[in-house]
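User: tokens in, sequence out, please.
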């Protein structure tokens, strides 16, 4: 698309040292490769008092190599910075990059799903930040501006969110939009994050590996099998560290821009999820987390998808929260629960069984397929969302706003067909939350399929606009679908 006249001449460049912040690992790698032998020779010579001095390349050759590497890297970094430009208009963000292979990217501002200000460790030292924003493309092509001054990144984030909300146009005045104030809702202590790391599924893997190791060692009467488990042990240690460092200093705040999340030990992230961008919510509790009474809350956001580059941490809106804290977070991302008793309904979804809280459970014959969890499997439709509950050892509650329903499905295997049971599957955008109701009665599943299709259609007709601060257009409403149950 050709930029409009008002966009031409509004191109800006990122900070000049951005290529160095991005490519410092490559620089260190080259220095290690070329400097290791020389360094070892110097150490050998020093330890022998000069008697075992090794003749290496002349000093002028070393200086020439170092100087040539500096010129090459400097030229590459300069060209990378010079040919990277960005432009923010009333409707789009555009990024042009590349030297030999040019890349031009564009994102509509009203389709921005979430926007983050990221500070890797080296960027923090220089006072820089990366601005990363997602559009509704399943997380395959996040737009990045790497790197800007921290205050500039925050101003630009505020300007993009203001335009996405339908406020003041950006053209030529992006820096004049002040950053929206925020109010902190909760903060998790380092002890809580450490506890959640220890009580995570990684510990179950460690316990299982230790039990297997003990059995093997006793059977072969040799502890040499430990060597085979060393890579697994190192992987588990890395998983513990990644979880703790990512979720360290986790804070939840609310602002006119939406829900803000702040977290990170070495690399920090300030994450903003605008109103109405959450497609589905998943609340889980493992067996070890139940000992402490903690829950973990994930969300599906259209831009996040199933991208594993961030370790899945961006989809977490509460890594270890009590029941009260879970209800607080749900109030932020689902302000209208669609029921006069939200505490009772959501508590029943997390801790109840059978028909507690108005949930429609699986029939008794489902115990032949799911002997432990059949009494917890069920669903509950409120005026604004569908709640899917299942699991006993690993408990799960999934919440999908009616207007965010993408498609519906019914699944029935041969044994389920014999027992006249069926699974109801609600398709959301790509992400960690995959809503499903297991082992419903056949007629019950078909009725849920038709009723949810009607609720979704009615909810989409009255949903808020993508620009959440614009007044919705008046339309005819058929509210009876939203209050069937």
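Assistant: Sequence out:
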């Amino acid at each position: 698309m050709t930029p409009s006249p008002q966009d031409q001449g509004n191109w800006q460049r990122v900070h000049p040292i951005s290529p160095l912040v991005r490519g410092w690992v490559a620089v260190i790698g080259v220095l290690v490769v070329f400097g290791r032998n020389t360094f070892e020779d110097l150490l050998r010579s020093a330890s022998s008092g000069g008697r075992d001095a090794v003749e290496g390349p002349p000093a002028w050759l070393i200086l020439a190599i170092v100087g040539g590497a500096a010129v090459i890297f400097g030229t590459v970094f300069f060209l990378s910075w010079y040919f990277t430009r960005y432009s923010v208009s009333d409707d789009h963000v555009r990024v042009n990059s590349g030297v030999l292979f040019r890349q031009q990217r564009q994102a509509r501002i009203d389709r921005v799903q979430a926007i983050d200000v990221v500070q890797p460790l080296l960027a923090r030292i220089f006072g820089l930040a990366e601005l990363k924003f997602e559009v509704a493309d399943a997380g395959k092509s996040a737009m990045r501006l790497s790197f800007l001054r921290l205050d500039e990144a925050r101003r630009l984030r505020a300007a993009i969110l203001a335009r996405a909300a339908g406020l003041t146009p950006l053209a030529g005045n992006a820096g004049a939009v002040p950053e929206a104030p925020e109010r902190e809702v909760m903060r998790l202590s380092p002890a809580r994050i450490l506890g959640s790391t220890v009580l995570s599924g990684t510990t179950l893997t460690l316990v299982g590996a230790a039990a297997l190791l003990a059995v093997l060692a006793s059977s072969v009467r040799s502890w040499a099998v430990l060597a085979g488990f060393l890579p697994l042990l190192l992987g588990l240690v890395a998983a513990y560290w990644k979880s703790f460092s990512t979720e360290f200093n986790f804070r939840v705040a609310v602002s006119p821009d939406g829900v803000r999340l702040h977290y990170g030990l070495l690399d920090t992230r300030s994450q903003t999820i605008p109103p109405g961008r959450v497609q589905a919510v998943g609340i889980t509790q493992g067996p070890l987390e139940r000992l402490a009474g903690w829950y973990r809350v994930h969300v599906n956001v259209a831009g996040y998808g199933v991208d594993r580059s961030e370790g899945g941490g961006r989809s977490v809106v509460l890594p270890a929260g009590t029941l009260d804290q879970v209800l607080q977070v749900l109030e932020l991302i689902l302000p209208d629960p669609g029921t006069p008793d939200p505490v009772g309904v959501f508590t029943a979804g997390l801790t109840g069984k059978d028909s507690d809280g108005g949930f429609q459970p699986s029939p008794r014959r489902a115990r032949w397929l799911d002997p432990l969890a059949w009494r917890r499997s069920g669903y509950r439709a409120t005026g604004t969302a569908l709640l899917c509950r299942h699991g006993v050892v690993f408990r799960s509650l999934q919440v999908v706003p009616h207007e965010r329903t993408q498609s519906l499905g019914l699944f029935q295997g041969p044994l389920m067909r014999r027992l006249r049971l069926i699974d109801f599957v609600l398709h959301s955008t790509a992400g960690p939350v995959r809503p499903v109701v297991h082992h419903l009665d056949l007629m019950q599943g078909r009725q849920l399929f038709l009723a949810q299709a009607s609720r979704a259609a009615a909810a989409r007709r009255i949903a808020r606009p993508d620009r959440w601060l614009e007044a919705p257009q008046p339309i005819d409403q058929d509210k009876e679908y939203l209050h069937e149950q």
